[in-house]
């Protein structure tokens, strides 16, 4: 495994400029999706949920507000420090690398949402992460992996974009390289210094995911295609939302 300092997400996700760039994300849409997903999965009132790669915990908080016991884990220490101010008896947050065994279970549901998978340089690490999560699922438990529809995303890539947020102008360059969808992010920070980060998500196909699931001992129950939970259509769906059973 590469040292954390060498991995793009370990620095970019802890940067205040990451949160600045994405401050206009549609959280109302995310809450609507989570509400539909809960109705679709219908967890028992006593269910324990894991939000895997929870960021600052906004979605874990919403899930907890619906009455469930929720644990959120994320690699970003700064994000977890922010989330912990909202922790309570039934809402817990931990700094955790999903490639390491999870000691917080067992869980009835594991949710990995909004393309929080496929970041690792070595493909085998994706399987390790899934196996670790599956190990913390109770028998009969379910896992949800929400990923982009890779084929559609590559076809629709906007190569160059400029976005100004407050006093910061971000220059974005998107491309496909060595099995990864890459977004390069350049800007001058508040001190006027040039900064450069990148985001890298492995271009995982449905078929490759299905190989991962088999290796992790998970059974694919269904694939949903968008945040309205319509069935997945390869040619038109924006998302691949996998519902898996242990």
Q: Would you tell me which CATH topology of the largest domain applies?
A: Rossmann fold
What global shape is seen? globular
Number of separate structural domains: 2
Order of helices and strands: HHHEHEHEEHEHEEEEHEE
Which CATH top level class of the largest domain fits?
Alpha Beta
How many strand units? 11
Q: How many alpha or pi helices?
A: 8
What is the residue-averaged pLDDT? Answer: 93
Which strand order do you get reading across the main beta sheet? 3-2-1-4-5-11-10
Considering the protein shown, what is the CATH homologous superfamily of the largest domain?
Vaccinia Virus protein VP39
Strand content: 25-35%
Give the biggest beta sheet.
7 strands, mixed
Helical fraction: 25-40%
Second rung of CATH, namely the architecture of the largest domain: 3-Layer(aba) Sandwich
Distance between the termini: 27 Å
Structural class: alpha/beta
Radius of gyration: 18 Å
Keywords: Methyltransferase, S-adenosyl-L-methionine, Transferase
InterPro entries: Methyltransf_25, SAM-dependent_MTases_sf
Protein name: Class I SAM-dependent methyltransferase
GO molecular function: methyltransferase activity
Summarize the structure.
With 246 residues, the protein is α/β, with parallel strands linked by helices. The protein is 28% helix and 33% strand. GO terms for molecular function: methyltransferase activity.
């Amino acid at each position: 495994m590469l040292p954390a300092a060498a991995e793009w997400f370990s620095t970019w996700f802890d940067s205040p400029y990451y949160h600045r760039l994405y401050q206009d994300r549609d959280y109302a849409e995310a809450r609507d999706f989570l509400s539909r997903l809960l109705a679709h999965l219908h967890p028992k009132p006593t269910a324990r949920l894991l939000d895997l790669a929870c960021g600052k915990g906004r979605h874990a908080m919403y899930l907890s507000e619906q009455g469930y016991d929720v644990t959120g884990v994320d690699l970003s220490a700064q994000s977890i420090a922010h989330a912990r101010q909202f922790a309570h008896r039934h809402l817990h947050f931990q700094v955790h690398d999903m490639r390491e065994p999870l000691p917080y279970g067992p869980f009835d549901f594991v949710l990995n949402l909004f393309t929080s998978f496929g970041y690792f340089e070595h493909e085998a690490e994706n399987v390790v992460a899934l196996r670790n999560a599956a190990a913390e699922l109770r028998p009969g438990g379910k896992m949800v992996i929400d990923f982009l529809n890779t084929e559609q995303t590559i076809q629709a890539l906007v190569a160059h974009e400029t976005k100004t947020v407050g006093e910061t102008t971000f220059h974005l360059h998107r491309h496909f390289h060595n099995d990864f969808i890459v977004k390069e992010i350049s800007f001058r920070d508040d001190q006027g210094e040039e900064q450069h980060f990148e985001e890298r998500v492995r271009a995982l196909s449905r078929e490759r995911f299905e190989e991962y699931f088999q290796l992790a001992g998970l059974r694919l129950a269904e694939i949903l295609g968008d945040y309205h939970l319509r069935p997945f259509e390869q040619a038109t769906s924006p998302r691949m939302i996998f519902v898996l059973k242990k």
